[in-house]
Amino acid sequence: MIAKRDRHAAIRRLVASHTIASQGELLAELHAQGVDVTQATVSRDIAELGLAKVARNGHLVYVNPEDLGAAAPARPPSDERLRRILADIPVTVGRSGLILVLTGQPGTANVIGQAIDESTLLQQVGTLAGDNTLLVLFADEPSLLRWLDRFEAIQASAAPASPAEAPFR
Q1: DSSP secondary structure string, the chain?
Q2: Residues 44-50: contacts with CB under 8 Å, at least 24 apart
Q3: What's this model's pTM, rounded to 2 decimal places?
């Protein structure tokens, strides 16, 4: 039996050097290299390694997390995705010191955080997402206030047309 760290290293090498589009393909490649492993273990390994699927040459393939920057061309920041998400997900904003606490529906914090990271909102130091709660961290009060004004403007432009449909804040 191969050690987990050796199996992980083999998976990382395969993903870096082959076009692997499915867990089944990865499993077959590992077996071809003499690594005896189950599909369930490969599934766990993919999650533990943080492998992602990206479009390359018209196919979705696994990539190592450190290769993600090279996987897709950089897009200029845009608020459109954040606006669409905020139109569908009611988000409340609270505050604790230099931290804003954004709360949405269960399972939405990562989506909201990624949309913020892709947006023109740049004053934050970083974001940290849980299940339904996103922490947005700031270095100083002016940055927090500028960010909050801009976020509220994006949120208002995404609000439903009818005041009865507007999220409680």
Answers
A1: ---HHHHHHHHHHHHHHS---SHHHHHHHHHHTT----HHHHHHHHHHHT-EEEEETTEEEEE-GGGHHHHS------SHHHHHHHHHS--EEEEETTEEEEE-STT-HHHHHHHHHTSS----SEEEE-SSEEEEE-SSHHHHHHHHHHHHHHHHHHS-SSGGGSPP-
A2: 45/4, 45/7, 45/8, 45/11, 46/11, 48/8, 49/8, 49/11, 49/12
A3: 0.53
Per-residue confidence in pLDDT tens, the chain, 169 aa: 788 899 999 999 999 999 999 999 999 999 999 999 999 999 999 888 888 888 777 788 998 877 775 444 456 778 998 998 899 889 999 999 999 999 999 888 988 998 898 889 999 998 999 999 999 999 999 999 999 999 999 999 987 644 444 444 3
Domains of the chain: 4-71 (1.10.10.10), 80-165 (3.30.1360.40)
Dist CA 99 CA 155 (whole Å): 18
